[in-house]
Amino acid sequence: MLKIFEDYAKDFNLIFNASKSKCVICQRHGAAQNKSVFSTSRLAFKMRDDVIEVVSNWLHLGHIMSDDGDDKLDILNRLCCFIGQANNLICISGKLYCSVKTRLQKSFCFNFYGCDVWDLSNATRGTPRLSD
Q1: Count of CB atoms within 10 A of residue 101's CB?
Q2: Whether residues 84 and 125 fall in one domain
Q3: CA distance 129 to 73
Q4: Distance of CA 21 to the CA centre of its chain
Q5: Which neighbouring-strand residues pair with 58?
Q6: pLDDT score for 41
Q7: How far is CA 89 from CA 57, 75, 80, in A?
């Protein structure tokens, strides 16, 4: 697939920035901890002559993707964003009616786009906490 991108870039005189790209190799649950199953240290993906870094997790389109398929980091990220947005709203909405505060909170703080794909049934990872 990277070869197709390279050929396309060459044909249409485009430049892809490999330093802005990362590679997350998704494995089945628990496989990332067992390094003997699959080793990413030997992989080297390149775009032209630039190496694309292999990482264990990466923020993409507002969601943290992890190589082990665990949603814990993404859930924690969304929780931290929610707390920050709610605190900002509290600071600026001091003397507003409760009904107005509720509408503002619903509009500005409940940005959980994509949460419907979280795997909340995985009992082995536990509930994410801010202290984790």
Answers
A1: 15
A2: yes
A3: 10
A4: 14
A5: 65
A6: 61
A7: 30, 21, 14
Specify the pLDDT at position 131. 59
Name the residue range of residue 61's domain: 1-69
Same domain, 123 and 60: no
pLDDT of residue 123: 54
Are 60 and 78 within one domain? no
Specify whether 115 is located in the same domain as 99.
yes
User: Which residues neighbour 26 within 8 Å (Cβ) at sequence distance 6 or greater?
Assistant: 65, 67, 69
| pLDDT for residue 105 | 87
Residues 43 and 84 in one domain: no
pTM: 0.64
CA atoms within 13 A on the CB side of 23: 16
Q: How far are the Cα atoms of 31, 62, 82, 100, 102 from residue 108, in angstroms, in the given order?
A: 38, 16, 9, 12, 10
pLDDT digits (tens, 9 = 90+) for 12-71: 988 888 788 888 888 765 555 555 455 656 677 877 777 888 888 988 888 888 888 888
